[in-house]
């Protein structure tokens, strides 16, 4: 959840910088919550693997890489879903113009 929210905040803020149209932005509270929640959840997960998992370093590294890959996959999945939805809306507008 945290990585999806963080990705949304970053992308929305970048779109607002490049857009001439006015649209509601994320509030500072929501932006701060997204960054803090992401950092805390990642730190707790990795901290649990490093300090409380009583396994060899190779096993800890495997789990750590699994967490990293999960975070990266969630960023990618969120981007793909959002891009697909934007493409659907854009193609709907183009069909309306052609008709």
TrEMBL record:
Residues 9-18 have a biased composition (Basic and acidic residues). The chain crosses the membrane at residues 27-50, 62-81. Residues 30-83 form the YiaAB two helix domain. The keyword Transmembrane helix applies. It holds the Pfam family YiaAB. Coiled coil: none annotated. Keywords: Membrane, Transmembrane, Transmembrane helix. One of its GO terms (biological process) is DNA damage response. InterPro entries: YiaA-like, YiaAB. Residues 1-23 are annotated as: Disordered. GO terms for cellular component: plasma membrane. This is YiaAB two helix domain-containing protein. It comes from Paenibacillus sambharensis. The lineage of its organism: Bacteria, Bacillati, Bacillota, Bacilli, Bacillales.
